[in-house]
Each structure stands twice: as C-alpha cells, then as structure tokens.
Amino acid sequence: MDQIKIGRFIAEMRKEQQLTQRQLSEQLDISDKTISKWETGKGLPEVSLMLPLCEILHINVNELLSGERLSTQEYYRKAEENMMNLVREKEESKKKLILSAAVAGLCTAMLLICTMISIYVETMPYAVKIFMAVFGVVAFVTGVGIAVVLDREAGTFECGKCGHRFTPDMKSYVMGANMITKRYLRCPKCGESSYCRHKLTH
Ligand SMILES: [Zn+2]
Predict the structure, then answer these.
(1) How far is the CA of 191 from the centre of ligand 1 (A)?
(2) Pair 1, 65: CB distance under 8 Å
(3) CA of 88 to the centre of ligand 1 (A)
(4) CATH classification of 3-70 is 3.20.20.70, yes or no?
C-alpha cells in the first residue's frame, strides 16, 4: 500500500470537510500528531479507526486504502488489490517472527559454543580464549538486538482492555514483560496497561 498517496488523500479529504488536524483528531479521540503522521505517509490508521475515519471523511475503506476516489468499475479491481496487500502483510509479519526466533536461537548457540570452547579447550592460548568469549558475547547481543527489532515490527500489539492495535516504541517494548505471544504494554488509546497479544496484521 502506498502510504504517501494515502496520506495525501487523507489530507485532501479532511480539507474538503473543512476540518483541521486537531478537529479530526478530537472526533477520533486520538492525538493530532497521529493525523500528521498519517498525512505525511509515516503511518497508516489502525484498523479500528478506519471505519470512523472514513465516515467523517465521507469515503469508503477501499478508497482510503487506495488513496483516491474510485468509480464503480475501479472499486472491484482495487478491492481485490487491497485484499491481497493485507494478506501479504500478514505473511511478511509471520516471516519476521520466524526469522526473529531463528536469529535469537542461533545467537544463543553461538554464545554457548564460544563459552564452551574457551573453557574446555585447554591448549588454546589465553588471548584466543578471551577473544572467543568476547566474540560470543558480541554475537549474542547483536543477535538479540536484531531479534527484538524484527519482533517489534512484525504486525501489531492488541490492547487487552480496549482492543486497540498499535506498535509500541522501542523503549516500552524492551521494558515490557514478555509471555511468548503477549507483552505487558501501555495502550496509547485508553492509557491502560495490560498484557497485549501480538497480532500479525494492523
Ligand atoms: Zn486500550
């Protein structure tokens, strides 16, 4: 999906309804920064906000995701295109999650192997042992970092209280307690903290 095009379309439709970013954000009960993020192509509206947004802007979801007004003929073609994009997003999220787990596993193995070698191979010079240990730790830290980035970017987290879906910022993601498919996070919409389920789509 073309975020820049969608963003421009949202701005255009908002102005057509003679709304400021602030007025639109108040109607949707979100911050005006979020509207600005959408309009500059830096993010898409969450699924839970799409219908209310479309209602206010007098457009349909298909037009929102296409970033333009659609005639009846175009409507069906675009609907299929947009549906395929959503399926693709889900697949990409899944790939990221699998890759994230694989990277984390591989790096833990690297750390273990390096540590074992530097402890048990007695003939190895001291300097090499130190190098092995340092290398193991660096590989582990890098790997965990990559795994975290991939996991955070895959799909969204769903608030346990209000069902709002969002991508947490890096700090709260890392600080949040983790239960495999859930993470303790604060919801940007209702402000409540809860265990949020990791979802594959927006
Ligand atoms: Zn919430």
Answers:
(1) 6
(2) yes
(3) 26
(4) no
C-alpha pair distances (Å), 73 with each of 15, 110, 129, 179: 26, 56, 69, 47
Please give the residue that has the higher pLDDT: either 179 or 161: 161
Structure tokens at 182: 């859930």
Q: What pLDDT, in 10s, does the model give residues 12-47?
A: 999 999 999 999 999 999 999 999 999 999 889 988
Task: Output the CA 164–ligand 1 centroid distance in Å.
Answer: 5
State the SS3 of the chain.
CCHHHHHHHHHHHHHHCCCCHHHHHHHHCCCHHHHHHHHCCCCCCCHHHHHHHHHHHCCCHHHHHHCCCCCHHHHHHHHHHHHHHHHHHHHHHHHHHHHHHHHHHHHHHHHHHHHHHHHHCCCCCHHHHHHHHHHHHHHHHHHHHHHHHHHHHCCEEECCCCCCEECCCHHHHHHCCEECCEEEEECCCCCCEEEEEEECCC
CA 149–ligand 1 middle distance (angstroms): 23
CB atoms within 5 A of ion ligand 1 belong to: 159, 161-162, 164, 187, 189-190
